[in-house]
Design a protein that fits this description.
The protein is mainly alpha-helical. Helix content is 59%, strand content 7%. The protein has one domain (11-115): Winged helix-like DNA-binding domain superfamily/Winged helix DNA-binding domain (Arc Repressor Mutant, subunit A), CATH 1.10.10.10. It starts with 10 loop residues before the first helix and ends with a helix. 17% of the residues are buried. The mean pLDDT is 93.
């Protein structure tokens, strides 16, 4: 089943985000081998060149590493993975707070909503 990708943003960037999410959430663990470009492109329903571009971006960030004989693996640098996880969380919180402010909520009201049991 193809991944649900948005046509309003670059596909490769969405793939980078999705693979980052899969790594920080533990779907792919440190040292795990990733599927090949062709395999993952088929699963995502995208051109292999697009997947290759996303993999290149993940390699530049250091999140994945290419090993000549065994393909691409997730970095074993758990500190890096934790920092990326924190950064992604901050981005989500910022977007959430922005939307809540657009709805007219003040910080105190937002906190009260988050702390309520309802």
């Amino acid at each position: 089943m193809a991944w649900n990708l948005d046509n309003d943003r670059p596909i490769y960037a969405q793939i980078v985000e999705r693979i980052q999410l899969q790594i920080v959430s533990g779907i792919y663990k440190p040292g795990d081998k990733l599927p090949s470009v062709r395999e993952l492109a088929a699963v995502a329903g995208v051109n292999p060149n697009t997947m290759q571009k996303a993999f290149g971006e993940l390699e530049r960030s250091g999140l994945i590493i290419t090993q000549r004989t065994s393909g691409r693996i997730v970095t074993e640098n758990e500190h890096m993975i934790t920092e990326i996880k924190k950064e992604l969380a901050k981005e989500h919180v910022e977007r959430f707070l922005e939307k809540m402010r657009e709805l007219g909520f003040e910080k105190k009201e937002i906190m009260a909503l988050l702390e309520s049991d309802k």
